[in-house]
Task: structure prediction
Amino acid sequence: MAPTSTQLLLLSPAELSYLHTSLSLHPPLRPDSRTATQFRPLTAETDILPSTNGSARICFADGTEAIVGVKAEVERTAAQPGAGEGFVDVDEEDEEGRGGKR
Result:
């Protein structure tokens, strides 16, 4: 599970020293043998939520995933043709689905 803003990554002094030393090498050496510019594998899917105008899911190698859905409505007003207004509502939930933020 990847650390979130409310979690801390706790490493021992030996682990911190190893990371600092290996990442300071030229070229840097990552503990998982990836190069400095190589990303971990991920998968992406689109149009996964049926009641949205667009949706996607990204799954990272460590099991972390992000799901996003977008719904849109366009209304025309008789009072001011060509003018309109928009509203954005964001609902963010943590990876375990507990509690949302608005």
